[in-house]
């Protein structure tokens, strides 16, 4: 896998809603060696940050650069064309369309691609996701876990350099979570950088090489996932007081 070095730079990023700072002067970068988990209590600013990075929101202040180029002010599809694609916490599938059509739509972000190539790649993703038998079924009829997989496959049809996932393991059984972890490891090994929000500890520890913990839009920890529970401020926020010997294991 060719090294790209630092691919994402976030500098002094802020966003307020009705005078409340959802993201507060946040700075960090992401390299091609990272698999980054974004953690924090409800209201910490995780979803707002994802929306800022993918063009859903515009920041009140600060800058975002991807592959050395400013992406602030670009719309979501323009950012996807540059290589950042996301999934959502709640399903955003085209319910009336088939599973195959939902996958194929993911390729819209790519330019000058033939229908034959799209169908071939969509067929490959159906196999990787174990969704072959559902290919002609309306997406609305899929079980919840299968919908989550379909969203990942649709995102990958865009061939992103950075894939941002909002709680990929949420609402899944343990077996389904294990399948998602294995799939994302394969995607990472093939060269796509991953950033994800998650609350399931064994998913975090199975995937993340780095964790950023947010609280009221501020970064309170940035480092090794296995060491974050030793950070006093993380302990205080998650467990109510410092000095505890806590574990982030399953």
Describe the structure.
This protein has two domains: about 150 residues, P-loop containing nucleotide triphosphate hydrolases (Rossmann fold, 3-Layer(aba) Sandwich); about 70 residues, no CATH class. It is about 30% helix and about 25% strand. The C terminus is likely disordered. It has about 250 residues and is of the alpha/beta class. Strand 4 and strand 5 form a beta hairpin. Helix 3 runs parallel beside helix 5. It contains eight helices and ten strands. It has a six-stranded mixed sheet, with helices on both faces.
Write the CATH fold name of the largest domain.
Answer: Rossmann fold
Arithmetic mean pLDDT:
89
The CATH class of the largest domain is Alpha Beta
Order of helices and strands: EEEHEEHEHHHEHEHEEH
Q: Shape, please?
A: globular
What portion of residues is helical? Answer: 25-40%
Q: Low-confidence runs (pLDDT<50, min 5 residues)? A: 241-250
* Tally of helical runs: 8
Structural class: alpha/beta
Strand content: 15-25%
Strand order of the largest sheet: 6-7-8-3-9-10
Question: CATH H level of the largest domain: which superfamily?
Answer: P-loop containing nucleotide triphosphate hydrolases
Give the count of structural domains.
2
Quickly give the CATH architecture of the largest domain.
Answer: 3-Layer(aba) Sandwich
Radius of gyration: 18 Å
Task: Tell me the total number of β-strands.
Answer: 10
